[in-house]
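Example with several molecule types.
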Amino acid sequence: MISIAEQLKDLFSQALVAFMGEEGRNVDPLIRPAGEERFGDYQSNVAMSLAKRLGAKPRDVAAKIREHLLAEPTATELCESFALAGPGFINIRLSAGWMAGQLAAIPAAAPRGADRLGIEPVAAPQTVVVDYSSPNIAKQMHVGHLRSTIIGDVIARVIGFEGHRVIRQNHVGDWGTQFGVLCAHLKEKMPTALDRPADVHLADLEAFYREASLRDEEDAAFHERARAEVVALHNQDESTLRAWRYIVDESRRHYLPVYQRLGVLLTQADERGESFYADRLADVVAWFERARQITAPAGLFPDGAMLRVEESDGALCIFFVTASGEPMFKNPQGKPFPMIVRKSDGAFLYATTDLAAVRFRVFELGADRVIYVTDARQAQHFEMVFTAVRAAGWTSREAGSAEVKLDHVTFGTILGEDRKPLKTRSGENVRLADLLDEAVRRAEAMIRANEADPDKRRGFSEAEIRDVAEAVGIGAVKYADLSQNRQVDYVFSWDRMLAMEGNTAPYLMYAYARIRSIYRKGAGDNRGEWSVESGDRGQATEDRKQATGVVITLTEPAERMLGRQILRFAETIESVAAGLRINLLTDYLYELAGLFMKFYEQCPVLRAGTDEVRASRLRLCDLTARTMRSGLDLLGIRVVERM
RNA sequence: GCGCCCGUAGCUCAGCAGGAUAGAGCACCGGUUUCCUAAACCGGGGGUCACAGGUUCGAAUCCUGUCGGGCGCGCCA
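Resulting C-alpha cells for the full complex:
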C-alpha cells in the first residue's frame, strides 16, 4: 500500500502535466489533509501558487486542474468529488467505497513487530547508523540518559520499519581519565575483584565512582597513581586492562537490565564504546596534521570555507575559517574557537573519538546516513565534527559518490515541576532504575484502587496486576517523553503521564484493551477475524486466518473517520521519518484512539443490525487494534489485553 | 560579546516544507450508564499566537529588528 497522500500527489501530477505540459511534473501539488472536516478529506493548494506564474486567476487554474482530474478514471475511482472553494482550493473527498477496498486489502496480521499493515518498504534501502543512549559507563544510568535512549530507539525502529538497514551504535563512555581513577581505586580497594571477577560485585556504581573521584581530588599520591593507570591502560597493561574490564562488565550488569525493562532494542552487541576507537585516534590526528589546510569541496558550505590544522598553546587544533578569513566559531573573547583533537599533554579527546567514529561508520559500516541522538547542548560540537569530516571528504566513500548524510537529533532537558532540571530531593541525579520503579509503583496503586472498587474491578490475578502495572508505568514514562516536540525542555509530571484522559499511554492502552474485550465477548464466531496476537509474552495465536471475504462498509460518519485514520498510518510514518519527529506518531495514535472511542460509542459491533455490518465493524476493530499495536511497537511500548 | 533553541488559552503542550473561523489535555461549568470496559463519551466558556516592521493573493508558520527565557562558547563528555 502506498499512502493516500502519495497517491493523490501522483493523480495531481498527472493532471498538472495534462494541464501545463512536462513542466507540470516539477510542480508540487501541495496536497494537505483538509483543514476542516466539512471541506473534505484532503485539499490541494496548488492552483493559488500557480496562478501568478501562469498569469491566470487561481479559481480558473483550479477549475482547469479539476477538469483534467475528472477525465482521469483513477482519480474518479479514488475520489468522490473535487470541489473548488475559497480563493482556489481544490477540496478532495475520498470515495468511501475506495477506502473500504483499501482497508479490506490489508493482508492478515503478522506477529508483533513484523505486522506491516500492507505498507511497502522503501524501494531503495539505505544503511543508517543510529548513535544513541551512550551513557558514561562507570555511572549508574540516570534521567539524563532517558531521552537519548528512548528517542533514539524509536528513530531506529521507524527507520527500520521503512525498510532501511539500521545499525545501532551505543557509543558508551568507557575510556578516558576517569577510568584511570577507577582502576587505581579498584586495585587498592577490591583486589579480589581482579582475581575472581565473577564473585565480587559492585552494588552501587555511583558510590564507587564518587569515592574514587573524591580520593583523586584529595589525595595527591592517589592522583599520581591514577594518572599512571591511564597510561597503563593506553599501553595495554594486563593488570590494568583486567581492572578496566571488570568495571565495564559490572556497569553492563547495571545498564543492560535497564534497557530490557525500558523495552529498548539495545543489546551488548550494539555497544561500540570509546575504547573501540582508542587505537585509531593517532591515525585520525595524523591525517589532519598531514593535511594542514583543507578547502571544503564546493557546495558544502557557502563560499569555500576552509580548515586550518595548527598547534595552539601546545594543543593540536582544527580552526574553521570562512572564505573571507573570518572564524566560523568564536570564543567569548572574540577569538577563533577551534576543535581540539589532541591535548597539550598528548592525550586525545571526545572530538577525536567522534571523528574516528564517523570514519569507521562511513568506510567500515558502509553508512549512507548517520543519526546522532544527543542533547542540544552538544549542537556546536557536532557542527564542528560534521564540518570537519565533510571538508576532509570522509562523507563520500569514493569520488563522486553520494554524500553521507549526518544528522544531529537534539532534544531538551527533563525538568521538574519547579522548571529546573529534574533532581532528587537531596539534589542528586535521579537514577533511571528508581524512576521506573516509581512509575510502576504508581501504576500498580491505580490498578489496585480499581480492583477495590466493585464497579471497576476486573478480577486480575496478582501476576496480571504486576504485568499490567509494568506495561502501563513504563509505557507512561516513555510516551510522555515521546509525545513532546523533542527540541524543547519538558516538564516531568507523574499525574499527567499516568492520566487516563488526554494524550497518554494509559489512554491508548485502554482503547486497545477495549477492542480486545469485544473479541473476548464475541469469541467463537469471529467473522471479523481477530488477527492480533496478544501482548509481548508470545501467547499462541489460535486464529490467524486470512481475513478475506469480509466486505467493509463505511456508512456511518464514525466508521468513515476511523477507516480513513487507519489508512493514514502510512503517511504518518513517512512524515515521522522525514523529519525525525516522533510526536507526529503519538498525535496520530491519540487521534486514532479518539476516533475509535467515538466509533465505539456510536456503532454497536457485536450487536450490529446485520451479520454484514457486524463483520465489517469487527474488521475495523481488528485493523484499529493492529495499527495501534504497530504504532505503539514503533514507540517501544507494549500493549496489554485487559486493563 | 558571538552562536543555537524557545516565547501560542489560567497550567502543560500540539500546530511552524505559508492556506480557509489557531487546536488538544488539565482546571472550570453542564450532560450521558437497563447497551460490546464510565480508567470512557458529548456539550460550553476561555486567545493582541511576546512585540514591531517586511515578503505574499494569504503569515502562529518565512525574513529583519526589539524584548524575555534556556543552553553552548580552548585542552570534561
